Amino acid sequence: MTDTSSMIGNDDFTALSAEAHMQLVRMVEALLFASNQPLSIDDIRLRLPDSADVKAILVQIRHDYKDRGVNLITVDSKWLFRTAPDLSFLLQGEAVQPRKLSRAALETLAIIAYHQPVTRAEIEAIRGVGTSKGTLDVLLQTEWVRLRGRRRSPGRPVTYGTSEHFLVHFGLETIQDLPGLEELRGAGMLDSALPPAFSMPIPSDDEELMPDEEPLDDEDLVERALLDELEEETHQESD
Known about the structure:
Layout: H1 10-34, H2 41-45, H3 54-64, E1 70-75, E2 78-83, H4 103-115, E3 118-119, H5 120-127, H6 133-142, E4 145-151, E5 158-162, H7 164-169, H8 181-186, E6 213-214, H9 218-238
Antiparallel strand pairs: 1-2, 3-5, 4-5, 4-6
Helix pairs in contact: 1-3, 4-6
């Protein structure tokens, strides 16, 4: 019997290897373009041969697309394609005008981002004024804020945190990329004469519940689903 492998030279093997690698690259590109959510390395690995070096392929694609109309970026250790920042103006005419958030909603969003997980009562204590349920509902509808769980305390208040959509919208790779004290002060967003003991929390959006949190119950999930359905109907009517 003829040994066909001996009939193939090293150059042929190299060509076959390069072709197989390019096919893997194409497969990863297809998965990223088809997904409407950022994908983790594990998400991608499930669709590829076991031998595929997914991280190396993603790094190569990010390099290949760095000067293209879309860039490959990471958000919370997940990967997605996004319009190159300098070309975002091209899409402004097609984009649906977002709802303008009130000052109360913006303040609430900032508190949730920096202090999460946080309850409504804790938000009110930080702001120094009441926070309506409507304000929190608006933030939930933007999908920048999510229900995390319930505090293990009397009344079992709901805890709030930010979502992946928050990171994507504000161009953050992780929640730790939020501006710190000195950056906010330099931008004029904080009083330069702050008390000496003033400090800001280190934000964390860890998916794992904190020791003082417990999972949401079925009633919470139903309420969240109804809110999502209402938001979808509102979008359809506006279209």
